[in-house]
Amino acid sequence: MFDLEMLRVLGEVILLDLVLAGDNAIIVGMVASRVPEEYRKQVIFWGIGAAVVMRIAFSLVAVQLLAITGLKLVGGLALLWVCWKMYQDLRSGHDEAEQNAAAEGEQFDGLRPAIIQIVIADLSMSIDNVLAIASAARDHPYIMVFGLALSVAFMVFAATWIVTLLRKYPWIGWIGLLLILRVAFVMIYEDISHITGRTL
User: In whole angstroms, what is the distance from residue 176 CA to residue 85 CA?
Assistant: First the structure.
C-alpha cells in the first residue's frame, strides 16, 4: 500500500520525468530547426533514439552511479546548470528561446554534425535525468524503477505532447524547476557530507 510519503515521492518523480523529458525534446527540436528540411525527421528520430538508449543504459546502473563518490556532486552541479537554462527559457518562453537559439546557432549542412550535437546534449541530460530520479526515489526502489521506465516512455511516446503541455501551462515548468533545484542541492549536500565525513 502507498503511504503519503510514497505518494509524495511518486509525484516528484513523475514531475521530474515530465519536465526533463520536455527539456530534452526541446533541445532535439532546436537542433532539428537548424538543418535543411529534408533532414529534420531523421535528426528528430536519431535524437530521441539516442536519448532513449542512454536513459536505458544509465538506468541499469543508476544505484551504482549514486554510490560513486563525487558523482552526485558533479551531477548536482550539472542539474544547477539545467536549472539556469530552464529559468532562462521559462522567463522568455520556450517558443522565443527556440527561435533565438535557432537564429544564433550555427546552421547544419548535414545529418552527422547535427546528430553529434544532439548526442552530446542527450548524454548530459540523460545522466542528469537518471541521477535526479534515482536520488529523489532511492529509498523507494520500485518508484525509482517506475520513474526510470516512465522517463523512457515519455521520450518515445509523448515528447511532442509534453512540450505542448509545458508551453500551454508554464507553471508546471516553474514547479519542475524548483523541484530539480531541490534535488540538485540535496545531491551536492549529501556528496560533500560524505566526502568530508561530517554533516554540514
Answer: 13
